Amino acid sequence: MLETRLSGVAVSPGRASGPVVRVAESLAEPPRTPAPADPAADAARIAPAAAAVAGRLEKLAAAAQGEAADILFTTAAMANDPGLVGEAERLVTVEGVPAPRAVYEAADGFARSLAAAGGYLAERVRDIQDVRDRIVAELLGVEPPGVPELSSPSVLVARDLAPADTAGLDPAQVLALVTEQGGPTSHTAILARALGIPAVVAVRGVLDLAAEALVVDGDAGTVEPADPRAPVVAADRRAAAEWNGVGATADGHGVKILGNVGSVADARAAAEVGAEGVGLFRTEFCYLDAPSEPSVAEQRAAYAAVLAPFAGKPVVVRTLDAGADKPLAFLAPEPEPNPALGVRGVRIAFDRPEVLDRQLEAIAGAAADSGAEVSVMAPMVATAEEAAWFTVRARAAGIARAGVMIEVPAAALAAREILEVADFVSVGTNDLAQYTFAADRQLGAVAGLNDPWQPALLRLIALVGDAARAAGKPAGVCGEAAADPRLARVLAGLGMTSLSMNAAAIRPVGAALAAATLADCETEARLALAA
Ligand SMILES: C=C(OP(=O)(O)O)C(=O)O
Ligand SMILES: [Mg+2]
After folding, report:
1. Which of 219, 221, 211 is nearest to 19 (CA)?
2. What is the domain partition of the chain in residue ranges?
3. Residue having the nearest C-alpha atom to atom 10 of ligand 1
4. pTM of the complete model
5. What pairing do the DSSP bridges indicate for beta strands 425-427 and 401-406?
6. Could you point out which of 16, 77, 132, 284 has its C-alpha 20 to 30 Å from the C-alpha of 474?
């Protein structure tokens, strides 16, 4: 066991320790060559590999409960499907394809048929891909990729995790999350915070650490080996700060304290700790796994459920921000060399306005159903023309208040013109930092640049604050910068009128603002701008 303490970037608070479970690397597509020397013998390996995978899944299913058990039993049955095994064997014996590749191709054929069938069957595509990867891994004698089923509370260690994997984690079983890559504003980090799982990202060398157990400090950003025999320690997830629930400075200057949400659980958590509304509802988080576009009725019901805890309160619903690190299967663009600079966010809507119009219709319906005071905003707007295009469409859908996010430097520089057409703006500091510093928010190696205290970023936010004051319209921050209690005061000093954050940050940020006057905030802002 190495006696090393490793450092990374703390992204989700809390301290926890326990046994390590590693997330296996994703498998490369198996090659079609060389052809097997003895096709009959190679084909004969497939059925036992499939049976072994099915057996393990059945064992997990027997230990699980409810929906998880049903899903595992169904997946086990897929692994043993004679159609799948038979087609893979045929590819080996008739076409001379090596067994791992044959399983890969046979499963993909099934996946395509399921996708074409649509509806419930299309939702099984991921399951068949999971089965495919497990059988291929079995044939290759390696660990299957993805997050393993956890039978007891564990610390997960991964190179990186997809947002869909993180969203599916069970906070009762995942004590903490450590990744070797990833940045503080990556969506995996955001989801870990929302789930209340302590997390440290960009921990160089953690994959080489041979420790059986780890202590993870999500406040200090450190990871160190623990005694594997020591009892498991789960983080205390209660927010401690005192706050009276009214977003304001000590001298009564109002700054709304709002929640960032992506699910019903997030919305309930934000309402419980006293969020005054929602400043960012990431609608795409509802559909990270969806194989096809949800209908208007489905979207309306999903959004209404998230809005329900905020009846009578302001809620900002962001239209789908698909692309880059949040791919949605039904809005996949043509392959691009630089997805973060490509067709993502509102840019997808320019090509496919009907998808946006259906979403706006669903949002208007959900507003009526829930009684929340709903506004909409568009992600990744770059110019005032784009802002005008969006607000016209939103109003045509019957949504009275329409704003845009400021997350591209060009939009911060054009904030005055944008506020001539939009009712409000909200600064997405995660992307604004990424694009200002040309530093990928998912990359641990450049995490230092994606630091919202950087004066260059704060100067852009100051421009937005000035434009909002001049226009007499609201400007908020809904990026992760708003969740830092000290930075929250700086943002208020720069003219931001609302701050939106994960549930765990609401009380500490509310308390930090209440402890300073507006003049204090402005002084802190001046110091930070000049740092
Ligand atoms: C809030 C933001 O949007 P997201 O993190 O979802 O990209 C942001 O970019 O700061
Ligand atoms: Mg963004």
Report:
1. 211
2. 6-23+147-225, 39-140, 256-530
3. 428
4. 0.74
5. parallel
6. 284
